[in-house]
Amino acid sequence: VWSQSISRALSVGMSDANLDARRMLLAEEINEYKELYCNLLTRMVENVDNLQEVDAALAKDMLSRLYRGHQAWHLAHIIIKHLSPRPASLNADLPFDLVHWMQEHNPSDLFQGGSTQPFLTDGATCRANDEWWRTLYHFIMHVYIDQAVEMLSLIGREGSYAYQCGEDGLEMVDVMISLLVGGGEAGENVSLFELENMVDNNMAIDSYWRVWTTRKEWSYLDKLVQKGASPICKKMATMVKIMKGSEDEISANAYSWLQIVVTRMLFGRSETVLGVADLASYADDALTVHGQFVRKPEDEESVIKDLLRLDMQGAVQHFFTDLKDWWSSAHLADVLYRGKYLPFSQLFASNMRTYAICNYIDILLCSNNMWQVAMAYVKGVVESDVLVDESTSVEARERWRVRRQEMLHLAHLIVSRQHIDSDVKCRHLLQYCPEDARDIHGNHLWEDSELIVKTASEIQCAWGLRLYTRGHEAASLYWLARAESKLVGTLASQSLHAFVQGVDDSLYRMQPILQYVEEAGGEDIPSEVQLIRTYSRMRELMATVSDLSLKDRQSLRSGRSPRSAMLVQAGREAAKLLLELLDESRGGEQRRAAPRRFWPELLSYSIPLIESGIPSLFSSSDMFLCLQALQDVESSFKADRRKPTEAEGMRVQSIRLALARGLSVSLQQEASTQ
Q1: How far apart are CA 191 and CA 636, in angstroms?
Q2: d(CA 491, CA 494)
Q3: Helices 527-546 and 473-482: crossing angle, nearest 10°?
Q4: What radius of gyration do the chain's Cα atoms show?
Q5: What's this model's pTM, rounded to 2 decimal places?
């Protein structure tokens, strides 16, 4: 949800010119967060009974925090919805939204106990039962109209206690029920029940509310109350004052400061529609009256208080300090930042939002399975952290640069600390490296960074060295070469020596090196790696040439076999590579001669090439080059002051004889051509 919201905000634009468009997106995002908490609550409740006693205690504590989180996000949705611009087709009524919020989090069964008691006390005086009437007031304040009408019906004309009310009392009950649910044509005798339905049906109710508050029944009720002929007159007078928005009566009969705020917002509206600023003022008054401004440790209502008073900074802070909820703290700070609802400057908002999200990322990193989520948060924060105002102060610009550097190093830390156990995991990690991260427009996130780190190189080096310790030299060299490690030259030389001296399957084991060369496209390839590639290709060609049968040799002379062209091409390419490995001047810019210790093995390849019968394979100068290389090999024995072994001596003799035959053939061919 958060990633999609960031993408939508970026597509709209993060400049002040697009602020209203961004704000219109926030209410729906917050509503999704509220639904998330509701789903979590449902899942927890379904499983809490199956837990052990110790786990059940922790689960109940978690349920309490989830409930408070759901309550806070529901309220945040209401406030942000009324702070943000809305489409012309969408009507919203703040007082009724608050009532519905209070209904959801204070269900009617909390007050049902008082409704089962008699409305009058026993005895000769027939005094009103305070508990019963207080329950009725609560139903009215919460706009639980069905329950309120049900209680009033007990003392109505059809009720079992009608005889105790007197005629005036019965008349008052009838009038009150008419105001709550009563009939008449809509627009003339509208009721509170109908007003609530209008809100639910997306209708503006300001004009209908004025009709309801000016109905003639209110004056008639006042006259009946003043007569005082019924034992319920005083209680009905209190109910009338509550429904007319009397601050004193609401405060005296409400069960909490929160009920005072919502009831005053609903029944205190007049010609001027009450807004969010009035809500903050009412919340301050109610908290002052009830002494709730005194700070309590881990106050579960602290976030609610902050939101009602529009103290957004306090709400972000208390989500963590009191509810231990960094998730909500981070996401609320982000929502307020994108909507510019945090106080003071945008610099303060940016710093606060980054701090909150970084702390939540730290919590994510406690789990080995959440690092990709952490990287998504890092990417989203950097994408949406922009210099909104070109006239921003020097301090703000510097802090913006520092924030980007902090997130860059955090991204480096997240990726580099992950355990790698396979090539697949390594390639997967490389997709999240900060130097390759791009925004929705395809631009590098940190392209302007002066301290860009080489996370990909570190990851590939670490995995390459781990493969080397396991004995996978070629695979190790592949990853180290990709990382441009200084170890490539040493390890490639060792791998080349093992390759030249290797067994039949050594060519298969060199596949990772060949894959790297193919991926690199021939650019910036270390010379040692290029040697392995050249030698590998030569081994493949020599395998083809060495398998020539007598029939193949005859076909080469006749040139009639379809396979002859392929054999000729393979032989000539092998001869060319052999000469390039012996003479650096023939290899071009991207190749160099093989080290001299490999020359005996390379020169031994000349034997099957010369004996293959492929015409015009070597020129006389080529043969002289090979003979000179063979002489250098023999000189190296003397320089090393060692005598060649019997096998080495026999191989040198075989090579000399083959080169002599090849030189003779090439001279004859050149003479006949001349």
Answers
A1: 111
A2: 5
A3: 140
A4: 43
A5: 0.75
